[in-house]
Amino acid sequence: MLEVLEVTKQYGRKVAVDHISFTVNQGEVVGFLGTNGAGKSTTMNMITGYLSCTEGKITVNGHDILHEPEKVKKQIGYLPEIPPLYQDLTVWESLNFTYDLKKVKVNKKAHLEEICELVQIKEVKNKLIQNLSKGYKQRVGLANALIGNPPILILDEPTVGLDPKQIIEIRKLISDLAKTRTVILSSHILQEIEAVCDRIIIINQGKIVADDTPGHLVQMRQNERRLTLQALGEAEKIKDVLASMEGVDHVSYAKTEDEDIYEYYIQTEEDAVRRKVSGILAEAHIPLLELHHNKPTLEDVFMYYTTPTYEKLEEIDFEIIEDDEEYVGGREDASNL
Ligand SMILES: Nc1ncnc2c1ncn2[C@@H]1O[C@H](COP(=O)(O)OP(=O)(O)OP(=O)(O)O)[C@@H](O)[C@H]1O
């Protein structure tokens, strides 16, 4: 079990990680999510002992990374964002070098061959690392992390910079590895996290803002129903009609390519609103052209926990005409969750 307890990291006056705590149990596959600069790499570097904590404590199966670094490091395989590979070694030389550094005890040749088979790098074993594609370099990085059979794998953005085919291959490889190991995976790619992880930790500005299963995080946003519709007529009048409906929290609108048609964005916590919209508009003799119910996705969850209010509005795919003060309230609620 990995335990991160009230851990803080300061770079000079910059607080990169701020009193975070979480536990990862054996066999869990945890996605570590956050925007650029949120503190993911700093946290991973502290867990793996590459960086010391300014405050707090990290233990792996009861061993403190600060006091028993060798014991902890033996249990962790780390694939940093940029794998540190000696470009002028062949793949096989690189693996041998890591094996020696890690002072692994199992039969060398058999162990390294098994890993080459697992990450599918047998065919490039004798190639110089500098001549490998980025996808293969990532596999070699992963192979290095697997030397010594560590039960915990920490992977920092393992698919960044890879082409779509390589991404699919590495993702499949991670899923296979996760069957028998504890994995902490940092990524910006939500489909990746959703495909591989059974738990998500979201970090924002150095603080943990969410820690749950992907399904439950999405479910918690179910209350926030959003309807998008297009209707024909005068925008302000239509907006007033929609806003007058019981259960509607907020309405905004934006231009479409057709100058008579605006798109309306309704925020509500009641499913009944969706059922009543067409009737209300018909009563007011307003032709309804389209109506969509936007179900929350993991992307919505991520945006909810990591986006400042003003960006949240900009992120919507059309020009916002209204100022939305209710979003400000919503944001404050969000940070309390
Ligand atoms: N060595 C350093 N000195 C000073 N500040 C640093 C250092 N390393 C990171 N930071 C700062 O600490 C914060 C967290 O950085 P970190 O690299 O952990 O974020 P991240 O979530 O991994 O981001 P990314 O997704 O871009 O890799 C950022 O504001 C970053 O600028």
Automatic annotation (TrEMBL):
All copies of domain ABC transporter, residue ranges: 2-230
Record bears the keyword ATP-binding: yes
Assigned keywords, A-Z: ATP-binding, Nucleotide-binding, Transport
Top-level division of the source organism's lineage: Bacteria
Residues spanning the membrane: none
A GO MF term: ATP hydrolysis activity
Alphabetical list of InterPro entries matching this protein: AAA+_ATPase, ABC_transporter-like_ATP-bd, P-loop_NTPase
Family named by the database record: Belongs to the ABC transporter superfamily.
Protein name: ATP-binding cassette domain-containing protein
